[in-house]
Amino acid sequence: MTNKLKLINFHTFASMKFKAIQIADILNGKVEGDDQISIDSLSKIEEGKKGSISFLGNPKYNRFLYTTKSSIIIVKDDYVLDKPIDNTLIRVNDPNESFSKLLNLFGEDSSDRTGVNDFCSIDSSVSIGNKVFIGSFSVCEKNSKLGDNVKIYPQVFVGENVLIGENTIIHSGVKIYKNSVIGKNCIIHSGTVIGSDGFGFNIDQDGKQKKVIHNGNVLIEDNVEIGSNTSIDKATLGSTKICSGVKIDNLVQIAHNVIIGSNTVIAAQVGIAGSTSIGSNCMIGGQVGISGHLKIGDRVMIQAKSGVLRNFESDTSIMGYPAIKYRDYNKSYVHFKNLPKIVKNLDNFIKNSNG
């Protein structure tokens, strides 16, 4: 059986090769060494080889600068060499940010797919923008709207009245329930579910759990990235809201009516209970649990494995279960780890007092 794709265009780039002077221009950096030397790959500094480019962004890797075989190394503009090296350096303001730019350059999708696969199920009422790609066995139900340059990979489900903004990428196996809204330039990875029912039940007169119907939706603003196998529940009423620039890792649970402020970052295995509001520019570590109906301020940093059971104001760093301020936790832990010794001393004191 032939794969019946309509209007599919594949454009494959040749192997990328750049000179040091070209890379320096891209990164607004300064070359120190041979500005005509070329590279065609990226590598870790400790595993560098000829023809590759590496970066030094962490002081604990400084020693590898003098042993790496990488042809070009990106370093901070004020880095002072302990001894001469033969490699070419590109000095920049921020090596980590600069190397990220190169990762984007080398990692660009080598194909520009457009068109709708014949093995899709697309309702006639669906609005499809320019240069849209819909892969095999995907479903788009009635009155949904796909903006320009949206890429929907195979086996994606898009429910009724879903809006997806331009340049958004939906990877294979994503399920988007009806009435969900997804903004521009978003990336949603495989296995994620957007808009499933919230976890809500009331006990009826017979003592049985009765399901609370959720009539709201999920609203995801622009430039959001959501990792694989994440679940975001729709609101009971109104919207569960993920604001612009939020980055969510794999295996995260976000319950009904939660609001995540702009540019907040959430690591894997975090669970956020219903109706909690989290501010902008927060950082939430892995396996954090946040109780429901709380308000977390802006720029709050929550350390991994913490359990958050109360409100916290902006510009706070917290840790532990139940979570307390980070410095208070560290002070308390000093006493906790010495608790056996403290108890022993207390027992001895009581015995001597009784004697």
Topology:
Elements: E1 18-19, H1 20-27, E2 30-32, E3 38-39, E4 41-42, E5 52-55, E6 72-76, E7 88-92, H2 95-106, E8 115-116, E9 121-122, E10 127-128, E11 133-134, E12 139-140, E13 145-146, E14 151-152, E15 157-158, E16 163-164, E17 169-170, E18 175-176, E19 181-182, E20 187-188, E21 193-196, E22 201-203, E23 209-211, E24 217-220, E25 225-226, E26 231-233, E27 239-242, E28 247-248, E29 253-254, E30 259-260, E31 265-266, E32 271-272, E33 277-278, E34 283-284, E35 289-290, E36 295-296, E37 301-302, E38 307-308, E39 317-319, E40 324-325, H3 326-337, H4 339-354
Parallel strand pairs: 4-5, 5-6, 6-7, 8-11, 9-12, 10-13, 11-14, 12-15, 13-16, 14-17, 15-18, 16-19, 17-20, 18-21, 19-24, 20-25, 21-26, 24-27, 25-28, 26-29, 27-30, 28-31, 29-32, 30-33, 31-34, 32-35, 33-36, 34-37, 35-38, 37-39
Antiparallel strand pairs: 1-3, 2-7, 22-23, 39-40
Folded structure, characterized:
It contains 4 helices and 40 strands. The chain is flat. The strands form 6 sheets. Strands 8-11-14-17-20-25-28-31-34-37-39-40 form a 12-stranded mixed β-sheet. Strands 9-12-15-18-21-26-29-32-35-38 form a 10-stranded parallel β-sheet, with no helix packed on it. By secondary structure, the chain is of the alpha/beta class. Helices cover 14% and strands 28% of the residues. The termini are far apart. The longest helix is centred in the last third of the chain and has 16 residues.
